[in-house]
Design a protein that fits this description.
Length: 487
């Protein structure tokens, strides 16, 4: 496979995986903005409590299965599944049912959502997460995009109906459960249909069962630790402070929509490509070229978004969430400082090399360090200090992963990232957005300044992506020649 074609496949896979997950994330963003503006802080904090606990618990149900699936090709996945005894499937099902019951009891005890609704909600949520990974391996992006769009429309309609007809948390999640079950049912039918197409069976391959089992355990621990890292601060704040303060912190420190999904899509695309082409090229050189390309492409989107969110933070919070969330602005300003390192998937190569131990060591150290810094920094800076603890640990974790990836590949860690490309982009983007914000704050209202900044994000991202694609077309042949020389 020519290198240029490999680049195109990477971009294509990243795009389709991202779009497949885009619509539900957009719906969640719209509802968050909508409810922040129309609900009292106390009520909004109680509503978010269900989602916070869901995001803490569902990775335990999946335990890395969805991440493991993405690691392998369709044929290898079939070989692995055929070697798992039925007893283990039953044990995993029992595991999911038990944890679903724990989650349901927590909601029942809080008096917000009935036991059965909570039980079925988290169970279907986790099952759908696993099935989506199977559909990605099958490259059934059309199914994921259609169901994602329909679910997003239903999500918005349900929340709008609840807000206008006597707001009830129980009613919201009852209706969302029906929509989620229908979505999971359609995904199951798509998987069955795809399996039935393979009438000749699959090619038998050797499977390193202990290696796969070890990777699964490591990925399960890593996925849980990463989700804890994203939600543990919000969970702790919701337990020890009032619902109003919890709502303020949630809106200030919430994950930036789409960027984690974009990173996940790019990381999945890298794994799919390495799984399909690892025997065709010298893998080290192929890996270096691929991860550098990923870093350059992702930075075209992440860096403009970072500059926009940081320099336009006042306008963003006031105009989208209303003035009652002005105390969330300093929390938001610190939280977005972690965004630049999101322009890279630091664990994709380690996952491909089955180095789950290293991945988990970095993830657990990241979580422990953030939690250790949380209280001292809270005493020093208040709620912004809690956000700062997670920013510090994020950068240290990125350095840890780069060091060990470079060490395993026998290269300098700096060769794994397009550092010069990143620095140039950050300088240019920061200059552009500082200038636009300065002009907007002088001549326009806050809302129009925000619109101007949003337009600038789209324009700068499009121009930057265009330049990157032009560079690949112009220098693709040279890269391919160097690739052959390396081999």
């Amino acid at each position: 496979m020519p290198l240029r074609r490999a680049n195109n496949i990477f971009l294509s896979n990243s795009f389709f995986i991202f779009i497949a997950r885009f619509f539900p994330m957009l719906a969640n963003l719209l509802v968050t903005i909508w409810y922040s503006r129309h609900l009292p802080q106390h009520t909004f904090g109680n509503y978010q409590y269900f989602w916070i606990q869901l995001n803490i618990m569902y990775p335990l149900l999946c335990f890395g299965i969805h991440a493991l699936i993405i690691t392998y090709s369709k044929t290898m996945l079939a070989n692995i599944l055929s070697r798992i005894r039925r007893g283990y499937y039953l044990l995993f099902l029992l595991w999911m049912l038990s944890l679903s019951a724990v989650f349901a009891y927590m909601q029942y005890d809080a008096g917000s959502v009935p036991f059965l609704i909570s039980f079925l909600f988290i169970l279907s949520f986790a099952v759908n997460t696993i099935i989506e990974s199977v559909l990605i391996v099958f490259r059934r992006y059309n199914v994921l995009m259609v169901t994602g769009l329909l679910y997003a429309l239903a999500y918005c309609a349900i929340h709008r109906y609840a807000l206008g007809n006597g707001f009830s948390i129980r009613a919201i999640f009852s209706m969302l459960l029906i929509a989620g079950l229908l979505r999971t049912f359609v995904h199951c039918l798509a998987v069955i249909k795809e399996v039935q197409k393979d009438t000749d069976g699959y090619e038998v391959e050797d499977v390193d069962v202990p290696g796969v089992r070890s990777l699964w355990l490591h990925l399960g621990i890593y996925d849980i630790s990463q989700m804890l890292f994203s939600w543990i601060d919000k969970f702790v704040i919701s337990l020890v402070l009032s619902a109003s303060l919890s709502a303020i912190y949630y809106n200030g420190a919430q994950n930036i929509p789409f960027l984690p999904m974009l990173l996940s899509a790019a990381g999945s695309a890298v794994l799919l490509q390495l799984a399909g082409n690892m025997q065709q090229y010298g893998e080290t050189r192929h890996t270096i070229l691929l991860v550098n390309q990923m870093g350059r492409v992702l930075s075209c989107i992440v860096f403009p978004v970072f500059c926009f969110l940081y320099f336009f933070r006042n306008e963003l919070i006031v105009n989208l969430l209303s003035e009652k969330y002005i105390p969330a602005i300093p929390i938001f300003a610190i939280s977005v400082l972690a965004l630049p390192v999101k322009a890279y998937s630091f664990t994709s190569v380690l996952q491909r090399m089955h180095k789950g131990g290293i991945i988990n060591a970095g993830a657990l150290a990241d979580l422990v360090l953030a939690c250790a810094l949380m209280y001292p920094l809270y005493l020093w800076l208040g709620l912004p200090g809690v956000a700062l603890s997670f920013v510090i640990s994020t950068y240290l974790q990125a350095a840890f992963y780069l060091y060990y990836t470079g060490r395993l590949l026998g290269i300098s860690p700096l060769r794994l990232i397009p550092l010069g490309n990143w620095l140039a982009k950050l300088i240019v983007f920061a200059t552009v957005f500082i200038a636009i914000h300065y002009i907007g704050s002088i001549y326009f209202t806050g809302r129009f300044t925000l619109i101007l900044g949003a337009i600038a994000v789209m324009v700068t991202a499009a121009i930057s992506l265009g330049i990157e694609l032009y560079w690949h077309r112009r220098h693709g042949a040279a890269s391919k020649t160097k690739f052959k020389e390396y081999r």
